[in-house]
Amino acid sequence: MPYEPNPSPCPQHRPHRRAPRPRTRGGAVVATAALTVAAAVASLAGCGGSGGPGAAPAPAGTEATGAAASAARFPADPPAGPSAAPSGPATAPGGDRGPADPHAPAPPRDTERTGPGKGPLGPLGPLAGRVVVIDPGHNPGNFRHTHEINRLVDIGTNHKECDTTGTATDDGYTEAAFSLDVSLRLRALLEKQGATVLLTQDGDRPFGPCVDERARIGNRAAADAAVSIHADGSGSGNRGFHVIHPAPVRRGAADTAGIVGPSRELAEHIAGTLARATGSAPAGYAGGGTGLHERGDLGGLNLSTVPKVFVECGNMRDAKDAALLKSSRWRQDAARGISEGISGYLLG
């Protein structure tokens, strides 16, 4: 759930042009992409996420972070609490996507058959040579580091908090845990198609990264697409997903002119495939039921020099949506829908 009331400028804007579909000879393209990403990772600084006013307080329970979360790879579903979702399946608008096994973790990452340059079609999948940056919103450890995440960072036009905790369901399943889970599933699906995938955080750091650094990670990787995964914290009764894409912004160092069109196209692809994969309807409270919401107040978008969107997968503050978000089966469907949208955009 991004809360960024102030536009975040890009210190070194360059218009992004989508690379043509690569012509591969052996592993040359994948090697080039891997080197690009490796250089990006080497240059990253370690500071803190996104979010803002209205973020949920620290959950009462505890959740694995750092090395434990990284070792698990796919965080398990939230344990049932006093106000946990009912055991029966919940029905989403347009289809039944309730939890089949609410405690089943995501499938493990298949490092033997997947990864950059490997996929079901052989040594090179359809996305070979493409770089995708996935940005799991917030961080499961942020609530333990309130001093650090409240530190102000320069976003060009002014200063704002490094990050926030995000929202949570009534029984304590956090947006940070949800977004990391879906992001890990999404990475596995994209890598099976041969894409080179970089995460802004992988449960491997105590907090953050900061909002400005999240954008720079995608910029330094020269990503063909960047997608930030979130869940909303709107009022109860507001249901569905929406995909946020950047508005035209030119203020201070911010200039989104080069990414507005490609980002809108990416958002359209994801909105269509996410609806089909999950059976969930686009939100009526944001975007007017189109599944698309243009915003010019999010630093993560305004700082980006590559096509980028935020996916608000559902509303954690609504009981019916919360039941879906806590379902491992639904999260896998959501990751598949987002993956198909990214693939359609890159190959279209």
UniProtKB/TrEMBL annotation:
<feature type="compositionally biased region" description="Pro residues">
    <location>
        <begin position="1"/>
        <end position="12"/>
    </location>
</feature>
<feature type="compositionally biased region" description="Low complexity">
    <location>
        <begin position="55"/>
        <end position="72"/>
    </location>
</feature>
<dbReference type="Pfam" id="PF01520">
    <property type="entry name" value="Amidase_3"/>
</dbReference>
<feature type="region of interest" description="Disordered">
    <location>
        <begin position="1"/>
        <end position="28"/>
    </location>
</feature>
<protein>
    <submittedName>
        <fullName>N-acetylmuramoyl-L-alanine amidase</fullName>
    </submittedName>
</protein>
<dbReference type="GO" id="GO:0030288">
    <property type="term" value="C:outer membrane-bounded periplasmic space"/>
</dbReference>
<feature type="compositionally biased region" description="Low complexity">
    <location>
        <begin position="82"/>
        <end position="94"/>
    </location>
</feature>
<feature type="region of interest" description="Disordered">
    <location>
        <begin position="44"/>
        <end position="127"/>
    </location>
</feature>
<feature type="domain" description="MurNAc-LAA">
    <location>
        <begin position="215"/>
        <end position="343"/>
    </location>
</feature>
<dbReference type="GO" id="GO:0009253">
    <property type="term" value="P:peptidoglycan catabolic process"/>
</dbReference>
<feature type="compositionally biased region" description="Basic residues">
    <location>
        <begin position="13"/>
        <end position="24"/>
    </location>
</feature>
<dbReference type="InterPro" id="IPR002508">
    <property type="entry name" value="MurNAc-LAA_cat"/>
</dbReference>
<dbReference type="InterPro" id="IPR050695">
    <property type="entry name" value="N-acetylmuramoyl_amidase_3"/>
</dbReference>
<dbReference type="GO" id="GO:0008745">
    <property type="term" value="F:N-acetylmuramoyl-L-alanine amidase activity"/>
</dbReference>
<keyword id="KW-0378">Hydrolase</keyword>
